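[Meeting: bench + compute handoff]

Bench side (C.D.) handed over the final construct sequence. Compute side (W.E.) agreed to return the predicted structure before the next meeting so the bench team could plan truncations. Sequence as handed over:
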Amino acid sequence: NVFGSIQILFDRPFQKGDFVRIGDTEGVIEEIGFRSTRIRTPYNSLVSIPNASVAKDKIDNLGARQSRRVRHVLGLTYETPEIKIEEFIESLKQTLSLHPLLEKDTLSIQLQEMGDFNLQVVLICFVKTLDLEIERQTRQEILLECLRIAKKIGVDYAYPTQTHFLKSLN
């Protein structure tokens, strides 16, 4: 623990208040002690990790990000005509590229997969904020815009369904 404390002191991979992931623990650094580091988890529990373990584990300082990644899979019905899918994707790109908090050069919206129940359009972008509440608000704005555009264009979102065909034995 002493070696781990010294390593944390000199490397400074995080500081009090940073949102980190250390091993399988994620949360905000509340205290960096001589023997252990205390992390407040999203469940509001307090986890103490011995500094020797901290020094050995991979540390992901999520608070050091310059932006936050947003990824959504938008499942469209198989009945959607190709022209409507292209119009939907293009309209989303145009609208979201105007959003003041989205990084324009990282915006990616593409038909990526033909899933079991839907055609999967994957939307990936980065929100220029470190504030979790602003990220959540921006995610909501993106999803509401996806719903508005889909309704305007006449694109339907899919939900898990199955069609069973019975073959005649005659």
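W.E. noted at the follow-up: The beta strands are 19-22, 25-32, 36-40, 46-50, 59-61, 68-76, 108-114, 119-127. C.D. will use this when planning the next construct.
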